[in-house]
Specification:
Distance between the termini: 16 Å
Radius of gyration: 15 Å
Bound molecules: dTDP-4-keto-6-deoxyglucose
CATH topology of the domain at 4-10 and 33-117: Jelly Rolls
CATH class of the domain at 4-10 and 33-117: Mainly Beta
Shape: globular
Helix content: under 10%
Structural class: mainly beta
Largest sheet: 5 strands, antiparallel
Number of strands: 12
CATH architecture of the domain at 4-10 and 33-117: Sandwich
Order of helices and strands: EEEHEEEEEEEEEH
């Protein structure tokens, strides 16, 4: 799908403990300007329901799991984030909804820009129009 890439973070350690690293141009194709995280979300609540115009993000679950339903205006795909070394890179306008949260789920987001409400497309029909 256009605008997304699955990432696998370098991981070190053994049965005594693991450490994952997100570093370098290959894994992080932008400078981080903001970090936010989402937690205590009810299992079936649907978050997101928007696209970003320019924002680049890396999303991952350091704890727990959830499903991202992604839509580039042509196709839909579900990506399950269920391990701390697995990330999702989203670049540009991809409609996203996320749900099916485990009770312990924490969604971490590394973002290329500071918060800017004008970068959000919060109406699905507007998203389709902007993609055309
Ligand atoms: C995204 C998904 C994965 C701020 O004031 N500053 C911030 O940096 C952010 C991210 C949000 N907010 C405020 C705006 C809303 O009043 O926090 C409230 C909840 O935000 P929102 O409804 O957009 O939350 P989600 O979980 O639907 O979406 C968030 C991000 O907004 C979005 O960038 O891609 O997580």
């Amino acid at each position: 799908m256009q605008g997304i890439k699955l990432l696998s973070f370098s991981t070190f350690g053994d049965e005594n403990g693991l450490l994952s690293v997100i570093e370098g141009a290959e894994k992080l194709p932008f400078e981080i300007k903001r970090v936010y995280y989402i937690y205590n979300t009810k299992k079936d609540f649907i978050r997101g329901k928007h696209a970003h115009r320019k924002l680049q993000q890396i999303l991952f679950c350091p704890k727990g799991s959830c499903d991202f339903i992604l839509d580039d205006g042509r196709e839909r795909q579900t990506v399950r984030l269920d391990r701390p070394d697995k990330g999702l890179y989203i670049c540009g306008p991809v409609w996203r909804e996320f749900t099916n949260f485990s009770p312990d789920c924490v969604v971490m987001v590394l973002a290329s820009e500071k918060y800017d409400e004008t970068d959000y497309i919060r109406d699905y029909e507007d998203f389709l129009k902007e993609k055309r």
